[in-house]
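Subject: design request, 276 residues
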């Protein structure tokens, strides 16, 4: 059984990637430079792992001891052969939680599936309950691809490989930590009205939903004003959010009118004070 207790971020420091982010900003325009984060920036490097012959009780103890919900399973050569998670321990005979079906439903399920469930409820070793094959990534995988994989396959963690060997793990918790760190590191950058407007228009032009044909954007003393017509009310909040995220914006004023394409009904913005 392999066990490493330290759980640090890549590069030995939590904010190594944040220093890179500041460097990227310094190299270009603060309104156009984008720092692309990847697995190496956020992954847990010193990974707690188990081997296929590790007992289920040992694996469960490790999860509880280190407050983690899953463990990579590696063979004697260091190759990832599976992942075992809390979900693999739910249907256990020891707890009386093994799956039980009426006779008629057992007939429909078939003997193969029933035998597989018997193994999972009675097995003593990790190799009999672990999930395989495993979805993996490398250190250069962008966070956008990582999130796509997690959503598509409904998984919570991805082993990170280098030359086929396990070097880290990216979990949902790592993504949340990255988001929280970004909130501390990214500061509002003072900008004049023209720079704010250019940055906002550039952001909206990147989005397929944000057609600006019926919308005018005005910036005065750091306050963004939206004028014009919406054909879909859901765009209102998206436009306001895009403006709020531009560095230097002090507030947003919504003067947009929503027109129902079917009935022609027109509704103005909700009555509320400027967003700051």
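Subject: RE: design request

Done. Sequence follows.
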């Amino acid at each position: 059984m392999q066990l490493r207790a330290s759980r640090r971020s890549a590069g030995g420091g939590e904010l190594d990637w944040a220093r890179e982010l500041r460097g990227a900003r310094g190299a270009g325009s603060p309104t156009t430079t984008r720092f692309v984060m990847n697995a190496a920036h956020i992954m847990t490097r010193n990974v707690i792992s188990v081997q296929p012959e590790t007992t289920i009780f040992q694996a469960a103890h490790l999860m509880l001891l280190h407050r983690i919900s899953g463990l990579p399973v590696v063979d004697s050569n260091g190759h990832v052969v599976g992942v075992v998670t809390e979900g693999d321990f739910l249907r256990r005979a020891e707890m009386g939680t093994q799956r039980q079906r009426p006779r008629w439903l057992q007939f429909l399920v078939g003997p193969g599936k029933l035998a597989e469930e018997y193994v999972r409820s009675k097995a003593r070793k990790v190799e009999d309950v672990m999930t395989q094959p495993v979805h993996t990534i490398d250190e250069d995988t962008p966070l956008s691809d990582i999130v796509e994989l997690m959503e598509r396959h409904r998984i919570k963690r991805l082993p990170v490989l280098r030359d086929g060997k396990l070097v880290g793990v990216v979990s949902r918790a790592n993504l949340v930590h990255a988001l929280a760190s970004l909130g501390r590191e990214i500061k509002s950058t003072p900008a004049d009205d023209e720079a704010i407007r250019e940055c906002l228009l550039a952001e909206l032009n990147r989005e397929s939903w944000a057609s600006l044909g019926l919308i005018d954007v005005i910036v005065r003393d750091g306050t963004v004003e939206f004028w014009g017509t919406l054909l879909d009310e859901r765009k209102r909040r998206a436009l306001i959010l895009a403006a709020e995220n531009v560095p230097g914006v002090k507030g947003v004023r919504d003067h947009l009118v929503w027109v129902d394409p079917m009935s022609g009904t027109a509704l103005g913005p909700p009555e509320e004070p400027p967003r700051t």
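The chain has a mean pLDDT of 81.
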